[in-house]
Amino acid sequence: MDQAEFRLRFNLHPLALQDPAAFPHLGLRKAAVLIPLQDINGELNLILTQRPMHLRAHPGQISFPGGKIEPYDVDAIAAALREAEEEIGLSRYNVDVVGTFPAHNTFTGFEITPVVGIIKQAFDWKLDPGEVADCFTVPLSFFIEPSNRHQKRFLRQGRYYSVHFIPYQQRFIWGATAAIIDHLCRQLSIPADIL
After folding, report:
1. Where would one find the signal peptide in this protein (predicted)?
2. Which CATH class is domain 3-194?
3. DSSP labels, 3-54
4. Residue pLDDT, tens place only, 42-71
């Protein structure tokens, strides 16, 4: 999928009021992530990061650049762009923000606002070793294929939760990141005859 088709699909499909993977929860900490899309040889790819093993929260997990919304951030978009700049060296001025998704709530206590952005020009990754152990790209077409995205229900503290997961090569993408990817792919799933 190239940028033009992505923008058309993203804008034609009305956003859901709330991510279906989310659930009600009080007292959530607000966070934002950037869903960075980079054109590589005419095909959009998602940039994902892997968290270092030394982190207390979610060590080793695959994630989007992002983090807690700080009091000095104007909004979730500003927070996502700031975090991407800090974590992988992606300048906020090098991102064309296409839109946001409704917040995704996690059972770990976060309300995550996904911010969708297309990278304007190729850039060199500058990873913050305190936040990011690795950075890699995955073709968006891989995620769009429904057979590559999975969901399973788990019982936790007497309540069932849906957990999304996506195996990719030697990596295992799961949890909020996989749920947000699934939401993005469903957003883009407009039949070709409508376009």
Report:
1. none
2. alpha beta
3. HHHHHHHHHHSPPPSS-TT----SSPEEEEEEEEEEEETTEEEEEEEE--TT
4. 999 999 999 876 666 666 689 999 999 999
